[in-house]
Design a protein that fits this description.
This protein is an alpha+beta fold. The longest helix is centred in the N-terminal third of the chain and has 12 residues. The chain has four helices and nine strands. The chain is 22% helix and 30% strand. The model has no long low-confidence stretch (mean pLDDT 90).
Length: 142
């Protein structure tokens, strides 16, 4: 009788197969692309694009995204870092508005790309875009 139970257990277990989760593929499927020539950010999975503010020094390449808490005024409590250079963190963050004379909210709404190239290298986005970015893992700047 014990022998029969053994085969029942084996036959029940054999069809169960575990499939390895391919995190790298999943991570790459959650990617955004910043087109510096158009000053816009596009979500690759949904194909929707949004204007951004960026700078001439915004680094190009493919970067992992990391959320960092910050208590610096004007950033809303966190930023999404993508490249560290010495003591400077290149980051995606909400539009920084602490210098009203820079007119950042007006500039991000402008249809002229030249109006949107003005930061020190970080990429500024509207609040709704920033909230969505927190669900993504990879940034490519081209």
């Amino acid at each position: 009788m014990m022998r029969n139970w053994f085969w029942v257990i084996i036959l029940c277990v054999l069809p169960i197969r575990t499939q390895a989760f391919d995190f790298q593929s999943f991570k790459n499927s959650r990617k955004v692309v910043v087109h510096t020539d158009r000053a816009e950010l596009c979500f690759t999975d949904t194909q929707d694009c949004h204007p951004v503010l960026l700078g001439k020094t915004t680094p190009k390449g493919k970067f992992d995204l990391t959320i960092y808490a910050t208590n610096k005024t004007g950033y809303g409590g966190d930023v999404i870092g993508f490249k560290q250079e010495n003591d400077f963190l290149f980051a995606l963050h909400r539009v920084w508005t602490l210098k009203p004379e820079e007119h950042r909210l007006e500039r991000i709404a402008s249809a002229r790309v030249s109006d949107r190239i003005m930061t020190n290298g970080c990429i500024n986005v509207e609040n709704a875009v920033y909230d969505k970015l927190k669900q993504y893992f990879v940034l490519e700047v081209i």
